[in-house]
Amino acid sequence: MSEQGWREFLSAEGIDDWVVLHGGATAVFHVGSLGKAARLAEAITKIPGLEGTDILLTIGDGFLTVRLTRDLWQLEPRHIELARAISAVAREYDALADRSAVQEVQVAIAARQDEIDVDFWRAVLGYLPMADDNAVDPLGHGSTVWMQEIDASKPLRHAMHIDVSVAHE
Fold first, then answer.
1. Across-strand partners of 66?
2. Beta strands in the chain (DSSP E)
3. pTM of the entire structure?
4. CA 111/CA 50 separation, integer angstroms
């Protein structure tokens, strides 16, 4: 896991459908109905090399969201080829990518290092660790919780804020 992985993804050709945010590479495809979204999802599951990658597909009435990873630091060169293959299948199903529909909400909890209790948040929310300092919804429905260490010399003991990420455009 490195910065190189997501930088290579962003500079790759043929991934115009995809947006990279804190949670990694994501694409939203509009298809017109729930049934078409389910058929597209089924077709995507047949792409070689996809099994066991922790991909997350979210089917909605008229759209399919595909998240390749749950963290941008998990992006690897293989994700570039998977993204291209998924986009190709989406085109076969007349699905329209909508980069503006990709978004993330993250709850950031800032505290001094000795007051950070990510295990509490994982337990109370039923979340899993993605890294030492965060917790993610295993179903992909809820916001990530990120523990941000603040400087011990600052007078602020504890604070929370919401991070909202969207595509550049």
1. 27, 57
2. 19-21, 24-30, 56-60, 63-67, 96-97, 103-111, 134-135, 144-149, 158-166
3. 0.83
4. 38
